[in-house]
Amino acid sequence: MLQPDNSFIRTFEIGSHIADFNRELLPNHLFNLLQETAVSHSEALGMGWDALHAKGLFWALSKIDVEILRMPKWLERIRIITWSKEFHLLVQPRDFFVETESGELLARVTSNWALVDLEGKPHLIEEVKDGLHHRLGCDALEKPASRLRKVTEGNWSEVHPVFYSHLDLNQHVNNTAYIAWAMDNFDYAFHRQHRIKFISINYLVQTHPDDHYRILQQETEPNHFAASIFEAEKGLELCRVATVWTQAQ
Predict the structure, then answer these.
(1) What is the mean pLDDT of residues 222-239?
(2) What is the tally of structural domains in the chain?
(3) CB 203 within 8 A of CB 147
(4) What pLDDT does 193 receive?
(5) I need a surface site. Which of 23, 90, 143, 204 has the fewest CB within 10 A?
């Protein structure tokens, strides 16, 4: 729902199909809900997938930082508040708050989006500025989305194929799939013993059907991990991921 301050709110209930064995929302599905809220906001402004696709354009997520204070729980109802901020040439910042219905803050998010054509070429945000309505003077996080470094040493995962379920409307790997890949790179015992507190991602190259990927990951300090995901055959770096964890209570 559009708000007078140019923000947008969607509500969700955490179903069992998106919760883990801790009865908490899976991280990749948190990203799914953030994305759905951003999509709904764009649609409400007349800047959604159909309108942009008619011009040969679409929104692509380039960077995102997510600070998790508490992960939503199974059957909990939450609201996600999102708003766009003043754009800079090729970058449209978008922030989010994730809250309970009673107003408890669960997560703070900042992200950068690019306007790209079907070949992946970036376009000036100026081209669609008339459809953008910004919320001024409100930042979910103090700093812009992080610029991460390429990981050059660490432990390699096995090679994995890109599956049908990883693909989005544009026949590229959905940005939320990379989160699932990164989470699956930690074993079951690690997830039993830890809780995710912070996720940062930089998306670099679009991944396509029939590609294969592998992950190079290192622990940079206790409970801090950095990873680069590569296309396995050509060695192209697809994205960078940083995660921070705490010990489970």
Answers:
(1) 96
(2) 2
(3) no
(4) 96
(5) 143
Spatial contact of 226 and 149, defined as CB atoms under 8 Å apart: yes
Q: Does 92 map to a domain?
A: yes
Contact 8, 82 (CB under 8 A): yes
Identify whether the C-beta of residue 13 lies closer than 8 Å to the C-beta of residue 74: no
Question: What's the CATH number where 234 sits?
Answer: 3.10.129.10
Confidence band for 62, pLDDT divided at 50, 70 and 90: very high
Task: Tell whether the model's pLDDT for residue 116 goes beyond 80.
Answer: yes
- Domain span including residue 121: 8-131
Nearest of 227, 234, 184, 239 to residue 212 by alpha carbon: 234
Judgement on whether residues 125 and 170 belong to the same structural domain of the protein: no
Instruction: Report whether 104 contacts 39 (CB < 8 A).
Output: no
Distance (Å, rounded) from C-alpha 16 to C-alpha 135?
Answer: 34
In DSSP terms, 81 is beta-bridged to: 9, 97
Exposure on the CB side of residue 244, measured as CA atoms within 13 A: 8
For residue 138, being part of any structural domain is answered with no
- At residue 132, does pLDDT exceed 80? no
Region of 235 on the Ramachandran plot (φ > 0 left; ψ -120 to 50 alpha; else beta): left
Q: What is the dihedral of CA 199, 148, 208, 33, to 10 degrees?
A: 30
Q: Is 2 a domain residue?
A: no
Among 97, 131, 165, where does a domain finish?
Answer: 131
Q: 55 or 231, which is more confident?
A: 231
The predicted structure's pLDDT at residue 225: 98
Report yes or no on 103 lying in a domain: yes
Residues 89 and 52 in one domain: yes
Same domain, 121 and 169: no
